[in-house]
Amino acid sequence: MTSPTVRIARLSARHPWRALVGWLLFVALCLAVGSAVGTHKATTADYRVGEAGRAEALAADGHLERRPTEQILVSARSGALDAKAAATAVQDLTTRMKRLPEVAQVAAPVRSADGRVLLVEVAIKGEELDADDKVGALVAQTEAVQRRHPALLVQETGSPSTSKGVDRQRDDDLALSEKITLPVTLVTLLIAFGSLTMAAVPLLLALSSIAAAVGLAMVASHLSPDVGVGTNVILMMGLAVGVDYTLFHLKREREERARSGGRLSSEALVELAAATSGRAVVVSGLAVVASTATLYLASDVIFSSLATGTVLVVLTAVVSSLTALPALLTLLGRRTERRALRRARRGRPARRIRDGKSGRFWPALLRPATRRPAATLVLSLLALLGLALPLSGLKITEMSRDTHSRAIPAMRVYDRLNAEFPERRVTHQIVVRAAASRSAEVTGELRALARRAAADPLFTGAARIRTAADHRTSTLELRVPYLGNSPQAHASLDHLRHDYLPATVGKITGAQYGVSGDVARYTDYPAHQDGKLPLVLGALLLVTFLMTLYAFRSVVLGVLGVALNLLSAAAALGLLVLVFQHTWAEGLLDFRSTGSIGARVPLFLFVILFGLSMDYQVFVVSRIREAVLAGTPTRQAVVEGIRRSAGVVTSAAVVMTTVFVSFVFLHIIEMKQIGFVLAAAVLLDAFVVRVLILPAALLLLGERAWWPVRPARTAVPGPNPTPVDVG
């Protein structure tokens, strides 16, 4: 019975123009519908996790949540501050800010300890995430004050202006990434195919899949809110898998065309490619989707957004490889046949088509595995285990505002703010909710807590207590004179949670309480991820095993695939720790080490790598299984299958690596780490695991690799060959 993959490809090949127009209409429809419904962005509540999240929810219920705030510094350009000129500038600034509809409150100016700087805090109306869209009006007024008072230095910072600066920097970085990725990908494909037309096909289909996925992601955001990185991951994964899937299919069609020597029609060649590589693409795509879907188990809005973008772009890439690609290959094939016919009539030989043979390079690279599989396996495993050793020192943290690039103006002002006003570096918000009748008791215990904090050198300044109008919710704000990523700031949080809170408000019957604030957030998020990691990783291992079992009906290959993926992921993470938790590579990769790895990086690596590794696993083992089905002994099938697939795996790995390496040039440290670790993982997987470890293991296993069901030795089904007269 013909598979659905072949039937769809056959239909597209027989009606190529209809298939192409249909695909373009689908892309246009996705973009049109997406633009019509718009993007539903995540709210502040969507980000809440752990105790900090629960405390923020309590504060929001009592309308005591912390407002997004901007800080404006007024100082002399040099020398002592002119008090009169500074007062005039502050009055001008205050008047301007109070006129803005976005502003909730303007605080009285505060002078620094040395008297050189005045600080004005401006609170913005609405939620934190909405402040990014409102802060532009405040920045404009600050710039206007600076122009009116050129003798002074008037500068603005704050979470909203920093966030807006990060978004602008990310957009600029992504534009640079595209300028690097697209030309390098085109050159790689040009080398692989030797034809500009054939090289452009994978790139154009990948870009069209990305466009369709962007539109679909807008619609999906109404089910799973977008956090602002959906388009980034669609671009990254769309180029990687979109080009790969087209490459697998296209290389097989070219190989079969060269092998047939003009005896098969373009439609028959497309059908044959769909029966082999087409099936591998579908299985690979489903494996990536299933692996990525495990991110939803993390119960995190950022991971859910990443998963949604990846799933959508992978599915659209698979659909394009089943519909638009066969149509394009048919049209290009017919053109090739017409040219061959014209050349034959003129008595000129037909142009040689590359048949996918590996030349001398890959047989030489495979020689250790084929001649000494046991030694190759042991040495390769030891090498990967050696790369994984630094993983023992892995330190996971949430990347705070302190890690942002100082190329952002607001971050440079932030550093000045911390230097001139150290008592404002960190603020803890203690939130308590109890019955309204216990309001006085809650206030008393919060005062007792404030007295304990005042005697603790980790805290500074006066405490501030607020109570909601319904007297059910109260908050206490305490300040810490240390940076948010410092050991002292984390120690102050521990004192509150484990000592001061249980000894005070913890004694109130029925009271709910917690600590929120930046330090609490940066502490609770990694803890939340640690709690979800066993569930996600367990599901990921199970999905990988089941997908391999479905593809090849082999328990041994399923176990082997899981083990190799774990090994390559561990080695890549070890390299990441070696590079980013130390300072030796800072100048080389343009970053400032935080001594830690972003909390989202390891889990994202495991999920994406397990999915992408299935590309190579399915494609390589499919070629081996195909040879076994045709009656070739397993040992010979392993060698021949890997030689046949080595070239396309290399081209795919280069394309993927180029996409991921381009993210290393981004300023955002977590994106830089993700780009580096994914590039390292793909290279290790393509050049060590698939070329050395996998063939060595399969050669040692022999027929046992197919346990419990060895493939029956029958001819691989293909299309009904239709001879083509080429003269």
Summarize the structure.
The chain has 727 residues and is an alpha+beta fold.
How would you describe what is shown here?
The protein is α+β, with helices and mostly antiparallel strands and 727 residues long. It folds into four domains: 1-38 and 195-356, Multidrug efflux transporter AcrB transmembrane domain (Multidrug efflux transporter AcrB transmembrane fold, Up-down Bundle); 65-164, Alpha-Beta Plaits; 363-393 and 525-719, Multidrug efflux transporter AcrB transmembrane fold; 418-523, Alpha-Beta Plaits, CATH 3.30.70. The protein has 22 helices and eleven strands. The chain has helices at residues 4-14, 16-37, 50-61, 83-99, 131-148, 159-193, 196-220, 230-260, 266-293, 301-322, 324-345, 361-371, 373-388, 409-420, 439-454, 487-503, 518-552, 555-580, 586-589, 601-629, 634-662, 669-701, and strands at residues 69-76, 103-106, 110-111, 117-124, 152-158, 396-397, 426-433, 460-467, 473-480, 512-516, 597-598. Strands 1, 2, 3, 4 and 5 form a five-stranded antiparallel sheet that branches. The protein has a four-stranded antiparallel sheet with strand order 8-9-7-10. A two-stranded parallel sheet has the order 6-11. Strand 8 and strand 9 (473-480) form a beta hairpin. Helix 8 (230-260) packs parallel to helix 10 (301-322). The longest helix is centred in the first third of the chain and has 35 residues, at 159-193. Mean pLDDT is 87; it is low at 715-727.
